[in-house]
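Hallway conversation turned thread

IA: we were arguing at lunch whether anyone had actually written out Ras-related protein rab-32 end to end. Turns out nobody had. So, for the record, here is the sequence (204 residues) and right after it the structure tokens. Reply here if something looks off.
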Amino acid sequence: MTNIEQAELFKILIVGAPGCGKTSIIRRYTEGHFTPNYKSTIGVDFATKELSLSKHKITLQLWDIAGQERCGAMTHIYYKSAAFAIIVFDSSRKQTLEEAAKWKNDVSGNAFLPNGKPIPMFLFANKSDLEPEVSQESIEEFSQQNGFVRWFFTSAKEDTNIDEAMRTLAQDLIELDIHPINREGVNLRDNSDQVKKKTNSGCC
């Protein structure tokens, strides 16, 4: 990617089971505060955050997709032109880790880079301020088995690792040479003649 004055825009999906703290993570990162009484997201919402890395100015467009939306009719629209995804689970509720695997498979089957490969993903073990039900060893094994680029313990309440993880994500966007989208949401190097048509992965 070249050095340009306008920030390069990247669409980032934030998905996971209901109640895992996706909205809290986004609000903490983009607004710098935590509110314990967020209502569950209905449908989809997004927020943006701009940051500078060396010669690059990057805008992360963080899409907060409701936990009930997996496999919904609008999924392919929500995922369009995404560059990266963060799968969130609640480390104090073991069952949400199983949900994380389903979300990972759903994103892998519906969100692709221009070269036809699934978009890369991070795993967030959120609510690390609470008593864990999942060990670090189990998360590490899960992350490796499911092909996550990296994983992080996070806490929106205590502001643990969120800035660090997002900055690492931005660095990975550059190092992996993932291309930005324009302000209309179109990948700047997408070539429909070279990208194979992808079908729904058959989740649910």
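OS: looked through it. Residues 186-204 have pLDDT under 50 and may be disordered.
IA: good, adding that to the notes. The longest strand covers residues 44-53.
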